[in-house]
Amino acid sequence: MPTDMKKIKIKLHCYECGEVIKKNEEYITLEVYDSPFDETSKTIHLHIENNISDHYRISCEEALYDEQWADFRYLDCPICKRTIVRQCPTNGWHSYVRDYDDEEICLSCYEQIIIKDGIARERFEAGKLDGMFFNEQDLKDAGYAMVADMENFYVRTNGDVEKYCSEALKYIDDGYLVVTEYEHMAIGGLEGYQTMWIKHKDSLCESFHHPEALPIIEKIMGGIRHGK
Predict the structure, then answer these.
(1) Residues 68 and 22 in one domain
(2) Which of 9, 63, 80, 169 fits a disulfide with 213 by CB distance 3.0 to 4.6 angstroms?
(3) 154 lies in which domain range?
(4) Helical H runs in 118-200?
(5) How far apart are the C-alpha atoms of 228 and 224, rounded to whole Å?
(6) pLDDT tens, residue by residue, 151-194
(7) Is 98 inside a domain boundary?
(8) CA 120, 125, 128, 133 torsion: positive or negative?
């Protein structure tokens, strides 16, 4: 999210085009994160109201978010209000973004939501294998237990998907929250191993939350529960 906009006073370089921001050129300063799980941001500067290319007439500020311009673009997460890179800069493929309630949110906020309320029943009914790579200790601390028969469950065919989702729905019908931990997944998540974790809704155990995200997550989840 923008934190400052002012006339140039010191020698700075634009994060996108790499050029020195000249005297009297307008720029914007952002605090961005190269992982949704980072606690420390980095400061970048971007030209505004310029053209980053003669062939692609968007500003350097717009290019930061434009996936048609380049890989490793950024997202303004609507929950935690942070500007976060969309995919892991280290391995190049691990997505830091999830679709939730018809909008894109960062992986950290998604993790907090599903640990708190589990994966939505509708996703399993639709045959979707939503999940993520968890720190197992975080799941244990939140009161979840591994389902032994669904540990390292191999998913390759539609039949595998149906079996996994059917088991998840049975647990949900019995009053459990269900989350899916990815173990070893192919790029794109179409094949690989995953593990099911469950927690009974009656059990009381606090999960961890990003301090800035908690009030907003509570508001979102409250609205969903009341059909808003």
Answers:
(1) yes
(2) 80
(3) 118-201
(4) 121-125, 136-141, 158-173
(5) 6
(6) 999 999 999 999 999 999 999 999 999 999 998 776 555 678 99
(7) no
(8) positive
